[in-house]
Amino acid sequence: MRIGNITDYLKKEIFPVPTRVMAFVGLAALVAFPLIMDQPHILRLMIMIFIFSIFAASWDLISAYTGQVVLGHALFFGVSAYTCAMLNTHFNMSPVMTIPIGAVVAVAAGLIAGFPALRLKGIYLGLTTMAMPVVLVAVIEYMRSYTGGEQGIIGIEQLATSRVHFYYIALLLMVVSIAVLMKITRSKIGLIFQAIRDDEIAARASGVNTTYYKLLSFSLSGLFAGLAGGLYAHFMRVIGPSVFEFSFSFEPIIWTIFGGGASIVGPVIGVFILLPVVEMLHVHLGDNATLIYYLILVIVVVFAPGGVLRLINRYTEKVCPECMTVNAFPRRQCRVCSAKLSAVNGE
Amino acid sequence: MSFLQVKGLTKRFGGITAVNDVSFSVRRNEIVGLIGPNGAGKSTLVQMLMRAQNPDSGKIYFHGEDITRLNNWQAVHRGIAGSFQCTRPFRRLPVIANVMVPCTVRRTGKKEVKTSTQIQAIEIMKKVGIPHLAKTLAAKLSQGDLKRLEIARALATCPDLMILDEPFGGLNPGEIEMLSQLIKDLRAGGCSDSPLDSGGLSMIIIEHKLSELMKIVDRVVVLCFGEIIAEGTPAEVTQNEKVIEAYIGKEGI
Ligand SMILES: Nc1ncnc2c1ncn2[C@@H]1O[C@H](COP(=O)(O)OP(=O)(O)OP(=O)(O)O)[C@@H](O)[C@H]1O
Ligand SMILES: [Mg+2]
After folding, report:
1. Looking at ligand 1, which atom is closest to the CA of residue B36?
2. Helix (H, G, I), strand (E, B) or coil at B113
3. In Å, what is the CA distance from B228 to each residue of A276, B55, B225?
4. What is the mean pLDDT of residues B143-157?
5. Of A166, B29, B34, B200, which one has the greatest count of Cβ atoms within 10 A?
6. Contact with chain B for residue A305, Cβ under 8 A
7. Which residues from chain B sit within 8 angstroms of residue A191, using beta carbons?
8. What is the CA radius of gyration of chain B?
């Protein structure tokens, strides 16, 4: 009966939609990947991709969905990474404990970062949040006996005994995080986040407690960014103040814009494409890599303003104007309500 | 105990006193027209009632409760909803999602029937006459449709008092006719699944199209330079010397 339900679901909801087939096949490939590929540096790259996918999606939630310009997202990542590192090295706490605690601390950081958002908007909020990781670097410097100062913290325990083991843990956590984030954005909460993004005053006039929902968005974003940071610390086994660098705050923005914002899946696609690209560019081009990287970004942003995801969607599927069901692109009739689908994509 | 009571409300912007010591009240089930020349302070006054702006002094009582210091969203939950003169849609959301936002957060009464917010939103869109636009992005609407969306969204909060700031702006005569009828129906029936027992709702309507406005209001308050210069039935007000001089003009409406 159970099996029947699953095959039924696959037949009805997955196979008719190309992008869902792609996601399904992609996921299956990721599960099988370590069986056919055991080169350590490739596995390492994949694990980084999983961790940063969570990180990027968490930025998508707060900024692209809720409209709160966060330019210091490294704060949540770094705060959690440091919490994990310190708890593990000073108190011998196991990663199973430190990662959840790190995520909770990142939630607290989210609430603190969310406070200015109750007053500030747009670039002003962006600049305020951008300053926060800088403050943290100073704090780390000041409390060097606990944080290791510039040297950072070394000898953090691995979360898993083998790289393959870590691969599957990270993959699982990424899939769960993305699923939860998608669930949130498609729920009533997600609707309210988007209303706040589009017009905060109108949201308030509609009865939305904007203070509560903004802080909620900051906490949720902090939670997932914190999860990513904790995984990062226990994977790298060494962290330093560099986790608070600007590049750590800007990368999730680049990944999200490249992949397609306000979609949760977009930033994940961004990470899956850009991280290997960066790696390859560095191997083959050395110092010119950064230049070429930014050139690629500019080209994509100019020619595919909605990001890669939008591009994929445009050429693979159509949304039924009547019932909003997603259909494969070649179809002429909606697979649910049989309404006529136009030849060109409506967006 | 009065339904809505305003006492000595004052609001200054720098040197300008936009609203100056205004007191008036609205009864349950009453439609009050708020008129006056451009810059008279009408929008500022109702924004304060909606709690979207803070008065410098004065008090606002709703159902006997002092709501002068409440937030905008708290006022909505007490039963005051308003539309903005300049429409403020959630631009990147479809019309139905725009209307669902207030449905998802609105206060729930004992009597409320458990229906999905989607169905509630569709009901409200039907009332306002925009069900066919459900899936259209709000950014793509015409001015007239935006006005109706604004009303739909206010209605979706299930208000006891609804404030409309120039609802007829940008509407053609046919649409005005429809909206007038809707306003009359609302007063009679209120929000169908209102948690309140009263049924009907009260309204404050700001409008420059006086001939249309006078057909639907019970009472008119005239504001000029932030002060109330006249108050009464449509007939009384249109014959008032001061009002003719300050606003309507000799040729009438
Ligand atoms: N946010 C603001 N800052 C400064 N001055 C303002 C502000 N809002 C309104 N005013 C001023 O207050 C006065 C009243 O404005 P208000 O918008 O309330 O008038 P109104 O009666 O609604 O006019 P209209 O019929 O043109 O809509 C005007 O002189 C206006 O310039
Ligand atoms: Mg006005």
Report:
1. 21
2. coil
3. 69, 16, 8
4. 92
5. B34
6. no
7. 93, 97, 100-101, 104
8. 18
pLDDT digits over B158-194, tens only?
A: 999 999 999 998 888 988 998 999 898 888 865 544 4
Which is nearest to A68 in space by CA: A136, A132, A124, A135? A124
Prediction pTM value: 0.93
Q: How confident is the model at residue B197 (pLDDT cuts 50, 70, 90)?
A: very low
**Angle at which helices A188-198 and A163-185 pack, to 10 degrees?**
70
Sequence spans of domains, chain A = 37-306
In order of A125, A197, B66, B171, the CA distances from B81 in angstroms are 29, 21, 17, 21
pLDDT value at residue B194: 47
Percent share of chain A, pLDDT over 70: 98
Domains assigned to chain B:
2-248 (3.40.50.300)
Residue A301 tokens read as 């942003």
Closest atom, ligand 1, to C-alpha of B11: 12
From the CA of B165, the nearest ligand is 2
What CATH number labels A37-306?
1.10.3470
* Per-chain mean pLDDT for chain B: 89
Euclidean distance between CA atoms A80 and A225, whole angstroms:
8
Q: What is the mean pLDDT of residues B131-149?
A: 93
